[in-house]
Amino acid sequence: MEGGIILFCLxxxxxxxxxxxxxxxxxxxxxxxRGQAIxxxxxxxxxxxxxxxxxxxxxxxxxxFFRIDLQRGExxxxxxxxxxxxxxxxxxxxxxxxxxxxxxxxxxxVPYYLRGYCETLHLESGSVLRxxxxxxxxxxxxxHLSHMALLQxxxxxxVIGYNTCIPK
Amino acid sequence: xxxxxxxxxxxxxxxxxxxxxxxxxxxGFGLMRMAFGATTLLNMAMQWRNVQxxxxxxxxxxxxxxxLALRKEWRFSLLDNIQAWGTDALYxxxxxxxxxxxxxxxxxxILAVSLFLLFSFHEYGIVLLDGGDSxxxxxxxxxxLSPCYKTFTIHHLVRKLRKTPKKAAIKRxxxxxxxxxxxxxxxxxxxxxxATAAYYKMGGVLWYSGSAVAVVMHHGLxxxxxxxxxxxxxxxxxxxxxxxxxxxxxxxxxxxxxxxAWIGLRIPTGGLKRFLIVCGILVHxxxxxxxxxxxFSLAVFVSYCGLLLDEDFLALRRWREKIRGAYHTLxxxx
Lengths: 168, 334
Description:
The complex is a heterodimer. By secondary structure, chain A is of the alpha+beta class.
């Protein structure tokens, strides 16, 4: 029994280490990949997958503010602001996490994200929504970061995706 | 409980046995179980208005999309094939089981059920998962392996309240202990978290230049502070930035120093561990005050509870006595 516990502990510790080994080259990389292939079923099936590169290698300099626009004829009318000041504090972190993921790699999900607003805002069938990211790039130098209140950073806008409201 | 050092030349079997099975206080893991239940409950409860949006079959990630968007290998989620009412039912069941975990009712089975549900929600809601969620389900798994139900449960509280009030008549119960191996798993996990976090930071430019913390303090996604306040505090950024990296890297010493004991060089690490926990409280506490990163800081504090051993509780009691003594002395002077 005790021997089994020791072996399990060594196995679990090895699996965690294999999961977290940084990428490399050469022999190290081959050993790491082989180790990860062996431990992956255990790690993945028990939801022990993990990566701790938050704010690394550098914090994200792109500072985005999101909004939803409604199409009115040829123009787009801002409908909902999705930023720190306008989201409820209980939902803020999750919503901004989703939005930053939609902006980066999950843009295929944007129509489904917007679909929810068709219902909550009781929009007519055929209304077209778009999710827009308005962003600026933060400076990396401390001298500039100490005077951000005075700086006017150039802002860009990017449309992340669209959705047409349809009847439920 | 006084920690006894194994003689340096004890047989290898004795040393291995003691390394994995020496009895330590179960209080740390009992506290961690309560804190895990409370933090995960808070984390999930704050999502009550968006359960269908985040996890429902017609939400942000519709069920028909799951096969395309999420990994297929070694993945399971109860939410993959249920209807909307099922998502709601499982959500409320999850909250109930987390509350029971917190108070320590039916702990082993209830903990297993809560983890099964939590993993299902996390595996489905990948798009909104953050570092705090990841750390919580890792801590949950270690708790499941451990005898975390030995202390700080509702049964212990009821038993304590039923005892006669005369303290002199009550014999102090023996300390509740557990084998040390769950603590070893947790410590290993925490060291790897901090070591890899520091490693990835050292690959950047802003952590070297000292402006990384100033950048995050000004970032619209996280920052709580108004811009003028963040500007005024930016001069602290280099100090805090380098302190963060070095204090994270120093966790590796908690693994290296004990390894030296196997070659005859014994370096106590209790004080170092407490120092690093205090550093972590400062860093993550500062993050919690100045930034909105969900329950990540709370999740880290949960893990710190599990790292407390007998000597740490003794040190805490000594610190508390010193603080009390200093307070009384000050009151006498004034």
